[in-house]
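Materials and Methods. Structural model of histidine kinase. The 369-residue sequence of histidine kinase from Kribbella aluminosa was retrieved and submitted for structure prediction as follows.
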Amino acid sequence: MSRKRSTRDWIVDSLAFVLAILIALLTYSDGSSDPVPRMLLAIDFWSGMALCLTLWFRRRWPVQLALLASLVSTYSDSAAGPTLVLIMTVAVHKPWRTSVWVFAANFLATVAFLQIRHTQDRTTLLVIAVILYVAVAGWGQYIRSRRQLLQTLRDRADRAETVAKLQAEQAQLRAREEIAREMHDVLGHRLSLLTVHAGALAYRPDASTAEVAGAAEIIRASAHQALQDLREVIGVLRAPVGELPQPAFSDLPELVEGSRAAGIPVELTLDADGPMPEHVGRTAYRIVQEGLTNAVKHAPGEPVTISVVGAPGNGLAVELRNPAPHRRRGDGQGLKGLAERAALVDGRLEHGRTPEGDFRLYAWLPWPA
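The predicted structure was written out as tokens:
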């Protein structure tokens, strides 16, 4: 099914129709220089005019009409105009092999025409006809190539736009995952400490007023800090992705002190000197933070041993140990997130029970020299 003719198509077709009629009138012979029967002259003229009318259907049947024009051209002078337009139409809309066949048909028609109508200057007329056919067909092929080039550029632009859109969507998904991971890491530790102290109050109805007040103060401070952290994380939703709250490796002792202040016995061995990449230090901090959160959640009140040892060129080893409960609760999403963090910096993460019955969380992170 052919597409609807646009305003531009109407203008081009109208110009082609008028041009074909003008050429037909200019090339029509009244018989003074080419004595032929008057009946043939009448057939010549009206055949040429009828062929001009077929130009309105040249977009639908270009090859068929071009072959019809070659047939009419065997006896008609006035068919020259519409024949040239149809040859060009075939060159514009069809492959070059089809144009060659149409060209050959019209060339043979020209030879037949010269045998029927003209007896003088046949060679000159044949050369002129061939030059016109080649020029028109070449122009049509140029237009076809240019259109194909423009269409190729449009397709590339569309593909580039689609790829850019997909990349933007993937970047947005990665940003959301990063925000979700940050919310888990930032709030999980605070809320775990708050849960421990709230549970202690619930299971110690005989606690003194001073102990209750102290626990309540710790709960209040932890809740306040958790609220502040939540505000920071939510606030960056309106900021560029790179402005998420990012702790540094130097904040690790402060993290451990906060856990100790909350009543968790933590022993820290820290031996890592030298310029450390920010992403490695941040990953180590998050591993320790998640390890402390899991220790509070699954083994409250039990001692936690932390070892962070490394040097440039040797990598950074992070290990946490604490007595493991008989049944471990939770869906393990925090450990999955830590494994992803370690993999992002080309590190590795291991976790599980030791022969002594402790739970061990170990990570090795690269530390370039």
